[in-house]
Design a protein that fits this description.
Shape: elongated
Distance between the termini: 31 Å
Largest sheet: none
Strand content: under 5%
Low-confidence stretches: none
Structural class: mainly alpha
Helix content: 55-70%
Length: 45
């Protein structure tokens, strides 16, 4: 982890938390996926 200024490490932790929730709620629960287009459309939804 690199920290360039105050608050960056917290921003990174928040981004990782959101990414984890996205994977859990969208990718795992709404699959199986046939291709990447389906994943992109689910993300837009």
């Amino acid at each position: 982890m690199s920290v360039g200024s105050v608050g960056d490490s917290y921003d990174n932790a928040l981004a990782e938390t959101i990414n984890g929730l996205y994977k859990t709620e969208v990718i795992r629960h709404r699959g199986p996926w046939k291709n990447m287009d389906e994943v992109e459309y689910a993300t837009l939804d």
